[in-house]
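R.M. (postdoc): so does anyone remember the format we settled on? I'll just put the structure tokens first.
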């Protein structure tokens, strides 16, 4: 691993070099578009709310994922989960695609009973079969238009793409031994889903896991670069955003459904986390017509 590279601060952002929100179902761009602006090198960064899938058609380079250097060749599929630290150095004029999915879309298209989420949580460089290229082209074609049922088709195609990546992960990547902290982190994620609207504190989660609050936050920082308090808040905001996007419920009813006794307090929490009120967020999404077109 390049020690000079690891000395650089890890940037937490949405897309590389951007801090804005991602209101569309997916974001599509070629590898060239963003990489060329940065001299074909993207320094270490992570996405707290975004999952990315890259497909290299020609060219290549090198990826660093969670400290592991990996060669990139033509017909390479790259899985970049939320929170995973990654960096890329591409050969100039590398051709390929990048599909970025918001956490809300991941929640919408993945059935928890199928068990894909823990598989997709592993960063990896994989061989790409012919199906991956077909799906990518379909997503890019649909994303570029504004045809009827666009959002539905994009969600469906995104689910197919994630399924293809999960299948490749399950067959191409050798099983790795799980560390104790990784196992505890997965248990924490499961508890977070179970007790989200109960508004458990870090102390509550730590007690349920039989560890100290300090250990829990240290473990979440190692796994995803954020303390446990931030992960709890992020998951709540993610659920709020999902309700604002996919339902017509009034903001007050969404607040009550998420365990808030005071809708005004919920709006303040949401505004502090996102920079806009729940109503402003919903209006922005509806104005773009992204999720509902």
């Amino acid at each position: 691993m390049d020690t000079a590279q690891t000395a650089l601060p890890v940037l937490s952002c949405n897309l590389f070099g951007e801090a804005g929100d991602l209101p569309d179902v997916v974001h599509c761009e070629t590898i060239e578009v963003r990489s060329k602006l940065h001299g074909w090198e993207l320094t270490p960064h992570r996405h707290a709310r975004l999952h990315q899938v890259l497909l290299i058609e020609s060219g290549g380079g090198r990826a660093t994922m969670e400290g592991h250097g990996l060669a990139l060749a033509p017909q390479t599929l790259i899985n970049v989960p939320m929170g995973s630290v990654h960096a890329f150095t591409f050969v100039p004029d590398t051709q390929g695609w990048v599909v970025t999915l918001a956490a809300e879309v991941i929640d919408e298209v993945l059935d928890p009973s199928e068990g894909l989420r823990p598989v997709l949580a592993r960063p990896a460089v994989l061989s790409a079969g012919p199906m991956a290229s077909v799906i990518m082209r379909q997503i890019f074609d649909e994303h570029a238009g504004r045809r009827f049922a666009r959002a539905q088709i994009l969600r469906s195609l995104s689910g197919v793409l994630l399924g293809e990546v999960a299948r490749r992960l399950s067959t191409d990547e050798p099983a790795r031994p799980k560390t104790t902290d990784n196992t505890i982190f997965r248990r924490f994620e499961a508890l977070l889903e179970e007790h989200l609207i109960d508004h458990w504190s870090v102390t509550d989660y730590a007690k349920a896991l039989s560890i100290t609050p300090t250990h829990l936050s240290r473990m979440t920082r190692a796994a995803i670069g954020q303390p446990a308090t931030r992960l709890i808040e992020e998951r709540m905001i993610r659920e709020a955003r999902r309700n604002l996007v996919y339902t017509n419920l009034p903001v007050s009813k969404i607040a009550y459904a998420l365990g808030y006794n005071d809708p005004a307090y919920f709006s303040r929490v949401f505004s502090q986390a996102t920079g806009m009120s729940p109503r402003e967020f919903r209006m922005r999404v509806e104005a773009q017509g992204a999720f509902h077109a």
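R.M.: ...and that's the designed sequence above, right after the tokens. Also worth knowing: The domain at 3-172 is CATH 2.60.120.280 (Jelly Rolls). Residues 150-172 form the longest helix (23 residues).
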